[in-house]
């Protein structure tokens, strides 16, 4: 028995170390992907979408605060891969860690469910997890740059806005997908795979057309998001939103399609307005559809239970059981 207890005690630190390294690796990989496309705002390099914030919030929601060391290591690895050890690194490390932690604590406070099956969960992820939580990371990160004279004071607002929106977009797009992958239990049926393949083919033809056409056709993405939300709920709508956001970001950083002949500030505003409205549409609409379907299933189960109860009551009050009682009511002959 002592040997078994000793082995379990050894396994727990080993599993925790593996989990910490896995979280750090996921954060670092997401950071490298995010750094592939950048925008220059007031001399500062920012990313339109920063996926590591979505990874951090998802890991905190799934594993809790024990994933915090992995997030800190991931932030450190990403920062050290693009710059040397400087005082500004401490501010970036603090901001990129404090933002997801505050978002996680606020979501936990309001009873957030990771299955995103209610409209209130989608609203909480948008306003608490993305918009409110990422205020901290943007303010700390850009504030440290200003304090260290690496950024002029007039450039604080545009850089802060780009930083904040990029972090918020990472939460809006990446976090729901990771939560869905964690909650996935069984693959869909063959008919659903065929429908999903058809939707994917439509997306592969429509999204590049909207992102790279010289005519502004970005609005064509919204019917696709609506169709995906109605047929596949959160999984379909968020995957379509991720694909469309990636294509739009690539087109914006290359200044092609609808982003051609625009200044850097105009590119950032147009891209972030499109990404933000698209992510909000996909997340909230799919949450509404999922909540309505869950409500309908609950009503159907309640009606089925009621039918079974009525059948049992009817069987217990059948004519064969009522016959003795009716005979007792007849007058007796003298």
CA gyration radius, whole angstroms = 27 Å
Distance between the termini: 85 Å
Count of DSSP H/I helices: 10
Question: Low-confidence parts, pLDDT < 50 over ≥5 residues?
Answer: 1-10, 325-330
Order of helices and strands: HEEHHHHHHHHH
Q: What's the story with the biggest beta sheet?
A: 2 strands, antiparallel
| Strand arrangement in the largest pleated sheet | 1-2
Q: What's the pLDDT, averaged over the residues?
A: 83
Global morphology:
globular
Sheet-strand content, in percent, reads under 5%
Features:
334 residues, globular, mainly alpha, two-stranded antiparallel ribbon, 2 strands
Structural notes for this entry:
- This protein is mainly α.
- It has 10 helices and 2 strands, in the order αββααααααααα.
- Strands 1-2 form a two-stranded antiparallel ribbon.
- The chain is globular.
How are the SSEs ordered, and which strands pair?
Layout: H1 2-34, E1 39-41, E2 44-46, H2 51-63, H3 68-82, H4 87-109, H5 119-147, H6 156-183, H7 190-212, H8 221-253, H9 264-316, H10 319-329
Antiparallel strand pairs: 1-2
Helix pairs in contact: 1-2, 1-3, 2-4, 2-6, 3-4, 4-5, 5-6, 5-9, 6-8, 6-9, 7-8, 8-9
What would you say about this model in short?
The protein is mainly alpha-helical and 334 residues long. The chain has ten helices and two strands; from the N terminus they run H-E-E-H-H-H-H-H-H-H-H-H. Helices cover 78% and strands 2% of the residues.
């Amino acid at each position: 028995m002592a040997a078994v207890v000793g082995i379990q005690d050894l396994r727990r630190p080993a599993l925790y170390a593996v989990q910490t390294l896995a979280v750090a690796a996921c954060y670092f990989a997401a950071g490298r992907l995010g750094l592939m496309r950048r925008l220059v705002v007031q001399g500062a390099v920012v990313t339109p979408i920063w996926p590591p914030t979505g990874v951090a919030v998802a890991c905190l929601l799934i594993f809790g605060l024990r994933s915090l060391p992995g997030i800190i290591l991931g932030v450190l690895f990403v920062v050290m891969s693009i710059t040397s050890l400087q005082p500004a690194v401490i501010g970036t490390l603090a901001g990129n860690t404090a933002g997801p932690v505050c978002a996680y604590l606020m979501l936990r406070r309001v009873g957030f469910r990771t299955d995103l099956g209610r409209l209130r969960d989608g609203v909480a992820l948008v306003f608490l997890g993305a918009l409110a939580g990422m205020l901290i990371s943007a303010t700390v990160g850009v504030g440290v740059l200003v304090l260290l004279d690496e950024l002029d004071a007039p450039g604080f607002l545009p850089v802060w806005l780009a930083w904040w929106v990029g972090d918020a977009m990472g939460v809006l797009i990446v976090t729901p997908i990771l939560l869905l992958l964690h909650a996935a239990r069984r693959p869909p049926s063959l008919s659903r795979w065929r429908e999903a393949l058809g939707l994917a083919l439509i997306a592969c033809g429509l999204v590049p057309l909207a992102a790279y056409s010289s005519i502004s056709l970005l609005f064509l993405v919204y019917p696709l998001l609506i169709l995906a939300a109605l047929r596949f709920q959160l999984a379909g709508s968020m995957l379509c939103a991720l694909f469309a956001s990636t294509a739009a970001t690539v087109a914006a950083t290359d200044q092609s399609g609808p982003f051609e002949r625009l200044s850097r500030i105009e590119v950032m505003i147009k891209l972030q307005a499109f990404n933000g409205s698209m992510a909000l549409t996909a997340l909230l609409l799919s949450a509404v559809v999922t909540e309505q379907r869950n409500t309908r299933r609950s009503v159907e189960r309640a009606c089925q239970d009621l039918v079974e109860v009525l059948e049992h009551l009817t069987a217990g009050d059948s004519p064969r059981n009522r016959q003795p009682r009716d005979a007792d009511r007849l007058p007796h002959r003298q």
